[in-house]
Amino acid sequence: MTIDNNMVVGIEYTLQDANTKEQLDTNVGAAPLEYISGKGHIIPGLESKLMGLENGAKTDVVVAPADGYGEVNEEAIQTLPKEQFAGIELQEGMALYGTGENGETVQVIVKSIGENDVTIDYNHPMAGRTLMFSIAVVSLREATAEELASGAVGGADSCCSTDESHSHNEGGCCGGGHCS
Asked: What's the Cα-to-Cα distance from 151 to each of 3, 6, 71, 163, rounded to whole Å?
């Protein structure tokens, strides 16, 4: 059995910036990241390169920004009056969460703090980075009818359901993938 659409895939991964070799994330020694292949749960550049692999396979995958979290969009960096952040103990590099125009959760990173203003970045923290994943496929099975209907491993109540109210880590949810 190989990875194809509508399969539940479990992977262990270590993620590095391909240029600096900085480790950005890993789930080695923890629960595997499980996703349904072909559903857009993980970045496209990684998912496409895992297709066809067998359970037990190990591989390294390099993902360019365009196939990962995108290029840095300079228009997504804004400078706002400091008073808009009243009551928040700001620190450069910290993540802030708010609600977007359509009710979705939006994450911004504080880039700099001036005397009267704050520069924030709406880009994904990994935007513009070429990513290097070291992957081990640790489980592989066909998705159940409930998983296919809900679009989530384990059904509608799992972490990677399409309900974005679940807690997410820096890489997305459930250890690094992103939910759609």
From this structure: 17, 9, 27, 10
